[in-house]
Amino acid sequence: MSQDQKLLLQKKKSKRNLFEILMGSIVKPLFGDNLTTIGSNIAGLLFIIETLRRYFPGQLKVTIQELLVNAIHRLPFFKKFADKTLAFFSPYAQIRFTEVEEYRYNYAYPAIKTYLGAQVNPQVKNLKGSQMRGRKSLDFKRDDDKLEDEYEGVKVWWEVVKFNDGANICRLTFHRSNWEVVTGSYLKYVVEEGKSIEEKKKKVKIFMNNPSLNWEMSTMNLWSSIDFEHPATFDTMAMDPKKKDEIINDLLAFREGEEYYKKIGKAWKRGYLLHGPPGTGKSTMIAAMANLMGYSIYDLELTSIGNNWELKKLLLATTSKSIIVIEDIDCSLDITGERGVKEDQINAEIKKVKKKNAVTLSGLLNFIDGIWSACGQERILVFTTNHLGKLDQALIRRGRMDMHIELSYCRFEAFKILAKNYLNLDSHLLFGEIETLLEETNMTPADVAENLMVKDGESGVDGPLKGLIRALEQMKLNQHSNEQQKESNK
Ligand SMILES: Nc1ncnc2c1ncn2[C@@H]1O[C@H](COP(=O)(O)OP(=O)(O)OP(=O)(O)O)[C@@H](O)[C@H]1O
Ligand SMILES: [Mg+2]
Fold first, then answer.
1. What share of the chain is helix, strand, coil (3-state, %, to 5)?
2. Which of 89, 135, 201, 380 is the most buried (most CB within 10 A)?
């Protein structure tokens, strides 16, 4: 027999001895004198086991614990008695985290569960494995309902308790002498760690508001969502690199800005107004923003909302770390009329339809200034428009929309990014000619991109580049004849 085996045997023996001693002291009197003493002896037994459990929460064998807990739960009187007495003398304290606390969802609960689930190492015996859509790797989660954790040399014990009615709690046991560490920094650490794990796993989603006619009483039905899988990034955005860097830096500073916003006493929100002709990349930039920040998008369709109250309700149901988007703001609500813009026949028709829509400019402004500031943290608001001049100044003044971003026709700097994306080209003999033509015409990045797509049967890069030159020359001719036409009409 090896030295190790001997030691193990010795350990086992000593454990059995302790158990026998304990049991002996109880069993003997238990069956001694008469039956009337049995009740109090059972209580004594339970009391001792419960004491052991409380004094050695981590060490006691699970089977004994379960035996004890089951026995105690079947005997409410003893449980109450043991609980009260032991709570008084026990050097251990417990904190319970329930999913719902005073009728409100307890956000610490899922964070704690995520933290506990993430404590995976080779010593763990029970794991859960899963693979989410779009992921290559498998995820493993701890599947034990008990966990011993250590933080700054302090030992604590977690237990996830599932009740028959479906409610779950996470229970933390720790020595009272560690009260400061546990309630001060440890729990903060656990919740933050859990939230950051959730954050990393979170998939970016796009939410669309359901027509208010379909709403039910519950707020769950206000928005429908799907996974957001748009491939656009700032790398692939064709625009002036300096302007691009400015926007990226602004977004990143916003994300890291919690302390700064607190210091200056402003709500942690930022508004971007994207304006420019169709096909210049406004919607593409919103996708790039979402991918850069890892924020979900709430695509707000104002025309399907009945009134300002519904707008409020929708906005209050958005989560933090999100981008709330209102595309084509000039077409979404009747906010241009106040400025007396001349309307043509078609616009007048559209206005008639819009009149029915009761979301007003003041409703929207109230939201930006008031409710907007009150609803949680970290939100970005993006408006897009093709017609900056049509918008009411009140809506777009600085402070409401912090940054105005103009997306415009494709010039050479933007073209180089598209040439890299579509043809993997850094330079080419035809670039010079294209540069001059792009300066002389107004072609959108969407049209340039379309021309750079390699057509069926084409190989190499010359075909798409020459195709682009032809399209640009044609555009130049058209622009020229349009100008001549205008001149002759004068
Ligand atoms: N600046 C750009 N960089 C990269 N791709 C672009 C850019 N602008 C347009 N595109 C391409 O053109 C397509 C249309 O662009 P997008 O939908 O973003 O335009 P938009 O400005 O939102 O137009 P609209 O005003 O009509 O909504 C995109 O799918 C994208 O491939
Ligand atoms: Mg768009």
1. 55, 15, 30
2. 380
H-helix segments, 106-207? 108-117, 179-181, 187-201
Taking the CA of 282 as reference, the closest ligand is: 1
pLDDT for position 227: 81
Q: What is the ipTM of this complex?
A: 0.99
User: How far apart are alpha carbons 282 and 386 in whole angstroms?
Assistant: 9
CA of 279 to the centre of ligand 1 (A): 4
CA 438 – ligand 1 centroid, Å: 17
Q: Which of 274, 292, 313, 131 has the alpha carbon at shortest distance from 204?
A: 292
Mutational pocket test of ligand 1: of 283, 285, 383, 447, the residue with most ligand atoms within 8 Å of the beta carbon: 283
- Cβ proximity of 334 and 352 under 8 Å: no
Q: In what order do the strands lie in the sheet containing 296-299?
A: 223-227, 205-209, 296-299, 322-326, 379-385, 269-275, 403-406
Start-to-end CA distance of the chain, whole Å, equals: 111
The residues near 469 (Cβ < 8 Å, ≥ 6 apart) are 430, 433, 434, 437
Ligand nearest to the CA of 449: 1
Residue ranges of domains in the chain, CATH in brackets: 18-90 (no CATH), 93-201 (3.30.310), 205-406 (3.40.50.300), 412-489 (no CATH)
Give me the helix-helix angle, 412-423 and 462-489, nearest 10°: 150
Query: pTM score > 0.95 for this model?
Result: no
Answer whether 421 contacts ligand 1 (Cβ < 6 A): no
SS3 341: coil
- Which strands form 92-98's sheet, in the order they lie side by side? 92-98, 168-175, 154-162, 146-151
Q: Ligand 1: does its nearest atom lie under 6 Å from the Cβ of 237?
A: yes
Q: What is the distance between the alpha carbons of residues 317 and 320, in angstroms, rounded to a whole number?
A: 10
Residue 286 has pLDDT above 70, yes or no: yes
DSSP state for residue 166 in the 8-state scheme:
S
**pLDDT at position 90, please?**
78
Residue of 280, 422, 453 best suited for mutating to test ligand 1, as the one with most atoms within 8 Å of CB: 280
Average pLDDT rounded to a whole number, residues 111-132: 84
The CA 284 to ligand 1 mean position distance, Å, reads: 5
Q: What is the pLDDT of residue 421?
A: 93
Instruction: Calculate the CA dihedral of residues 342, 347, 348, 351 and round it to 10 degrees.
Output: -110
Neighbours of 239 (CB within 10 A): 24
Tell me how far the alpha carbon of residue 26 lies from the centroid of ligand 1, in angstroms: 82
Residue nearest to atom 25 of ligand 1 (CA): 278
Nearest-atom index, ligand 1, CA of 327: 27
Q: pLDDT digits over 328-364, tens only?
A: 988 776 544 443 344 455 555 555 544 455 677 777 7
